[in-house]
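Example 3.2
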Amino acid sequence: MVTLIRKTAELVSARAPETSPVGFVPTMGNLHAGHISLLERALREFDTVYFSIFVNPKQFGPNEDFTRYPRTLENDLALIEASGAKFQGKRIIVYSPESSEVYPEGQGQTVEVLGVTTDLEGALRPGHFAGVATVVHRLFELVRPTVAYFGLKDYQQYLVIRQMVADLCLPVKIIGMPIVREPSGLALSSRNQYLSAEERQQGLVLSQTLRKIVDLIRTKRDLREAKALSAEALRDPRWNYLEIRDAETLSTDTRRSKNLTVLGVFQLGTTRLLDNMQVELP
């Protein structure tokens, strides 16, 4: 059963009497198979799952795509219904509010996470992670989830949310879910629809380069060749960055790391393709 809620007061009223654990999947909508994988994981683990669809204005910069970000609520609800039909007896509550419902007049709370937000996306998009942390904290206050599920395509964002939960001692477990990819290797993203057929082909260099770097690290067990390959790739100005970092802290000092993440952003026109791959060190 799927219930759509548009008002915060309605959400609070629906959530208030529940004492059983609930799962939560926060999204900005325009759903694809990656989002549905989060929902189905939550439905396997909980009888009641809350699912938010909200394009959060606080995480968009002044020259970013907030106004044209795809809003496809009707289609999103159809995908959620189809997914929920596989799980008889489970409840899905979809919260899809207007901005004024999430940020009522006079609500000035901002949540900032230090450390992990300082570079990469944090440097390129000032204020972005404060917007992400603020909206997720607000949604956690309203939903009070036991477990919340996030896709690992936005890997730095996942670490930011995990750090926020630890810093504020919030009673919610954060689960990171694997990236869902097209057969070509391109990571699924709502922004992929901005790409032309030619740009989609060009964008494959992102996942292909990450895979080459990960394979070099695994086979050579030495970062020198991997870093050389990264430096060579960065000659192409379409790369915003291509980095090998500690997977837990995003530190550039990986001498004691047990796990690494290779992160990259490749830009085609105004569309930034974000991806990462993990590698466990021996």
